[in-house]
Specification:
3-stranded parallel β-sheet, 4-stranded parallel β-sheet, alpha/beta
Length: 252
């Protein structure tokens, strides 16, 4: 058996999980869509909508501040670390209310690591808020065919031991993008991608499902229900953030 069975070869649209999935699939695709609904890619979309260029950074430690200084950008902090002096955080609600900044560093061990794993592939930030816009943009840009395949990567969450915890909201976000791509004549979808799309299409109430799911309940119980509400605004945004020169900006 060939040792590249994981590439989902022959499919125009593919699906996998986490930084390792992105690292494995990226050499075989022309475009990679990062999905982190709660909340890296939702935050990217909210910030880019306002005209901010968002620099992803894979580590949420002291090196993030040094990176922000080098990029001449503001640094987004953890949700509970936001202050009037530094109001930018990974919270979509906080970003919406914060003063405009032209450049923002957004640390995220999941979403940013996946973005970094893309190599030379085009990288797009997708979520429930912009799923249809992303699917349409992919098709119009010629991505999602066997000649120019796309990989949609669900970020998932992390267990305390660092292992990947598949997250329902990211499965649905990926499925929403893949469903939209198929409607715009992208594909064929790999079995993995088709199953993700079917999960989205057959979920009767996506908003309620994400809100009542484990990750949604974690944010609600931590006092951030508005983040969940913003993240579940299906197709509220027509913005397609594309990673260009190290930062996400709106596709032309």
């Amino acid at each position: 058996m060939d040792d590249d069975w994981y590439l989902q070869a022959g499919s125009g649209a593919r699906f996998d999980w986490g930084p390792t999935g992105a690292e494995r699939l990226s050499p075989a695709v022309a475009c990679l869509v990062v999905i982190d609904v709660l909340s890296f890619t939702t935050s990217v979309t909210v910030a880019v909508e306002s005209g901010t260029r968002v620099f992803p950074y894979a580590w949420r430690d002291a090196t993030a501040a040094a990176f922000a200084d080098r990029m001449d950008a503001r640094l987004a902090v953890g949700r509970r670390m936001a202050t009037p002096v530094s109001p930018w955080s990974l919270s979509p609600a906080a970003l919406r209310d914060a003063p405009f900044t032209p450049r923002l560093v957004l640390p995220s061990p999941n979403g940013s690591s996946i973005s970094a794993a893309a190599g030379g592939s085009t990288v797009v930030a997708g979520c429930l808020r912009n799923a249809t816009a992303v699917g349409r943009w992919l098709a119009r840009s010629g991505y999602g065919t066997p000649a120019r395949p796309v990989a949609v990567i669900a970020s998932g969450e992390r267990w305390p031991d660092g292992s990947l915890r598949p997250a329902l909201e990211d499965l649905l976000g990926a499925g929403a993008v893949l469903s939209a791509l198929r409607k715009h004549r992208g594909g064929p979808l790999s079995p993995e991608a088709a199953t993700a799309a079917a999960c989205f299409e057959t979920t009767p109430d996506v908003v309620a499902t994400v809100t009542s799911g484990a990750s949604g309940q974690e944010l609600v119980s931590d006092g951030f229900p508005e983040d969940v509400r913003i993240a579940t605004q299906l197709d509220a945004s027509g913005t397609v953030p594309v990673l260009t020169n190290g930062a996400f900006a709106a596709a032309g």
